[in-house]
Amino acid sequence: MRVRILVSFKDSVLDPQGQTVKNALHTMGYEAVKDVRQGKVFEIDLAGATKKEAERLVPEIARRVLANPIIEKFEWAFLKGE
Amino acid sequence: MKFGVVRFPGSNCDFDTVHALRDVLKRETVLLWHKDHDLQGVDCVVLPGGFSYGDYLRSGAIARFSPLMQEVQAFAERGGRVLGICNGFQILLELGLLPGAMLRNKGLKFLCQHVHVRVENARTDFTRALRKGQVLRIPIAHFDGNYYAPPRVLRELERSGQVVFRYCEADGRATEAANVNGSMANIAGIRNAAGNVVGLMPHPERASERILGSVDGRAIFESLILSLERRGPARRPAARTKARHDR
């Protein structure tokens, strides 16, 4: 069973890397771009865990390790076809 | 007294720190390996600068789970003095021994330069050889030194004198221009509520000898020596609240 976890800055935290990408896109003429937020993606193979166990483990792992709850939020989903 | 300098894979200021403590300040100093569980009876733990675990995930995020760091956490909770320099400061934040977090520098550049910092609180065991308002010239070298804390935490830090150092001009004014990495309220260093844990981004060990161009950093180590050799045993701090990560 594989899951994908997306970690990104909370809306209240400035994301200077996202801002820089946004500015670059504007320079290139992509006027439609209103905002860019940069994040990190983790794919975790939870071989041996049931779906129910995964639903308990993944948020715990994300909170304790993958994200710093002071500045970051996360969302996650099971990968399709699993 | 005896200092312990913790070495992680990727630490690169460990020897500089040992040199400053052992050869310049003439105090017994041991290197502590991150996989050990033994603090070797040290009176003060120093977490040196560097790039522990390559700064993977977030600066300090992996080092905080090292076996030795669990001992350091218990040592700090008993009132032991812990000083985190640069990457060491980042580790203390990730561990929850100090409040807040580090973001990438505002200009997205690695900054390696001398800066001025103002002593905001001289009534700590880490600054007692200094005076309030004194300006120190100490180098920084970091990518993630943009201090962030939620507004409520920041208010509490200011209210209780937990801001120890602030980036400033040579004359002591804490301007926006002097705030090179974009830290909230120009914060360069803080202490915990109990006062036995301090983290700062500037490198005092790189400003401890005349040949290095500044001796301003030495007073931080001298303060610790004064505190630990001339005063009684560590006061017991108030019980620490659990780190946010561990909820």
- Which CATH first-tier class of chain B would you pick? Alpha Beta
How many strands, what sense, and barrel or not for the largest sheet of chain A? Answer: 3 strands, antiparallel
Instruction: Supply Rg of chain A.
Output: 16 Å
CATH architecture label name of chain A: 2-Layer Sandwich
Tally of DSSP β-strands of chain A: 3
Specify the CATH class of chain A.
Answer: Alpha Beta
The quaternary state of the protein chains shown equals: heterodimer
Q: Gap between N and C termini of chain A, in Å? A: 6 Å
Strand order of the largest sheet of chain B: 2-1-3-4-11-10-9-6-7
Series of H and E elements of chain B:
EHEEHEHEEEEHEEEH
- Give the number of domains of chain A: 1
Main β sheet profile of chain B: 9 strands, mixed
Task: Describe the protein's architecture and organization.
The complex is a heterodimer of chains A (82) and B (247). Chain A is an alpha+beta fold and 82 residues long. Chain A has a single domain (2-78), classed as Phosphoribosylformylglycinamidine synthase subunit PurS (Mth169, Chain: A), CATH 3.30.1280. Chain A is 34% helix and 27% strand. Chain A is built from two helices and three strands. Chain A has helices spanning 16-27, 51-66, and strands at residues 2-9, 39-45, 72-78. Chain A has a three-stranded antiparallel β-sheet with strand order 2-1-3, covered by helices on one side. The radius of gyration of chain A is 16 Å and the shape is elongated. The N and C termini of chain A lie close together (6 Å). Chain B is α/β, with parallel strands linked by helices and 247 residues long. Chain B has one domain: Class I glutamine amidotransferase (GATase) domain (Rossmann fold), CATH 3.40.50.880. Helix content of chain B is 21%, strand content 24%. Chain B has helices at 14-24, 67-77, 87-95, 151-159, 218-230; strands spanning 2-7, 28-33, 44-47, 81-85, 101-103, 111-119, 135-142, 146-148, 163-168, 187-191, 197-200. A nine-stranded mixed β-sheet of chain B has the order 2-1-3-4-11-10-9-6-7, sandwiched between helices. The longest helix of chain B is centred in the last third of the chain and has 13 residues, at 218-230. Chain B is globular. The model of chain B is unreliable at 233-247 (pLDDT under 50). The A-B interface holds A 12-14, 16-17, 20, 63-66, 68-71 and B 57-58, 61, 65, 94, 100-101, 103-106, 108, 148-150, 182, 244-247.
